[in-house]
TrEMBL record:
Residues in O-methyltransferase C-terminal domain copies: 126-323
Name used for this protein in its record: Methyltransferase family protein
The O-methyltransferase dimerisation domain, residue ranges: 12-83
GO MF entries: O-methyltransferase activity; protein dimerization activity
InterPro entries per UniProt: COMT-like, COMT_C, COMT_dimerisation, SAM-dependent_MTases_sf, WH-like_DNA-bd_sf, WH_DNA-bd_sf
GO biological process: methylation
Length: 342
């Protein structure tokens, strides 16, 4: 007899199927079609997707069983979570995350066990190119680089405004965004704080994307790019704030401490580093999203990272030399914001 626990186990065992049900629905733009029509029955779905009723029925059965659709009489409608997160016009849309899972993450996840044995990202073998991290390899694959930064930029636009509202950046003159990618964080700051200068420090291949986005946003005159490698190159000087956003989860705790010490050295007295990141529970029992992302960082992205706890972040800041550390609430999305002052 099946119960809720058995269904949960079946969802784990057939996780790849669950993902394909979701990905396929997005490929067919099904959730938007259902929303625009106020719901659709089987014949309506089949007709709008241009497929026979039998495969349409298979898709609808799967989506309803995953509670992404609900049924009222013979009509399928979007569930509340689908309305929030799977409609392209909604701010919480997760389509870019589904795309990066499909094209970059999922091919390597079968190498998780071997990555554990070797203590490195064996799953990266599915992506050709130079270097030992995902971040290096996407630089020679423009299509995948676009997929990667579409997701990173989308995530930043959802989460970083909470940081910009929570921390008072008006007391800073110039902020460096380490690994700033397409410039989403820096653009948000420059728009909110008209006196603030922003520099993105990242690989040279991505800086034109960031600069173009800044110009389109009308903040290009206060937006700068500085190419470099976080580990081998010196950080730009002259800034009194450094963003260390969604960097901590990529690397080992030892390497994070090394990088934060590098930030400490680049800052003037009184300057600060803002560490903003996904966090796991302090007792290492959750969340589910932290667990899933940790497998990605170990197996594909870097071979050494995971989603750490707030306690881990605080310890690294302390070991890097920051004696005054502030913690901020209300930054949402299972994130933490710690600010260390020199």
């Amino acid at each position: 007899m099946f119960d809720a626990e058995s269904d949960h186990l079946q969802t784990i065992i057939h996780g790849a199927t669950a993902f394909e049900l979701l990905r396929t629905a997005i490929e067919f733009d099904l959730f938007r079609l259902i929303e625009d029509n106020g719901g659709l029955d089987l014949a309506g779905v089949a007709g709008r997707l241009g497929v026979p009723e039998q495969p349409a029925r298979v898709l609808l059965l799967g989506l309803a069983s995953l509670r992404l659709l609900t049924k009222k009489g013979e009509t399928y409608v979007n569930a509340p979570v689908t309305k929030r997160s799977l409609l392209p016009t909604r701010p919480g849309y997760l389509g870019p995350l589904v795309e990066i899972q499909e094209k970059i993450t999922n091919p390597g996840l079968r190498d998780f066990a071997e990555s554990m044995r070797r203590d490195t990202n064996v799953g990266l073998r599915h992506l050709e190119g130079p270097g030992t991290t995902l971040y290096e390899r996407v630089t020679v694959a423009p299509d995948l680089q676009q997929v990667f930064y579409n997701n990173m930029g989308h995530a930043s636009r959802q989460t970083f405004p909470l940081v910009a509202r929570t921390f008072d950046f008006s007391k800073l003159r110039h902020v460096i965004d380490i690994g700033g990618g397409d410039g989403s964080n820096g653009i948000e700051l420059a728009k909110r704080y008209p006196e603030l200068e922003v520099t993105v420090f990242d690989q040279e291949s991505v800086l034109p994307i960031a600069k173009r986005n800044a110009v389109e946003a009308g903040v290009g005159d206060r937006f700068h790019g500085s190419p470099g490698d976080l580990f081998t190159d010196t950080l730009p000087t002259g800034a009194d704030g450094i963003l260390f956003c969604h960097i901590f989860e990529i690397w080992s705790l030892e390497r994070n401490t090394e990088l934060l010490a590098k930030c400490y050295d680049a800052l003037p007295p009184g300057g600060c580093v803002l560490v903003y990141n996904f966090v796991s529970d302090n007792d290492n029992t959750g969340s589910v999203s932290a667990a899933f992302m940790s497998v990605y960082f170990l197996t594909v992205a870097s071979g050494e990272g995971m989603v750490y706890s707030e306690q881990d972040m605080r310890a690294s800041l302390t070991d890097a030399g920051f004696s005054r550390i502030e913690s901020y609430e209300g930054v949402g999305y299972r994130h933490a914001l710690l600010v260390g002052y020199k």
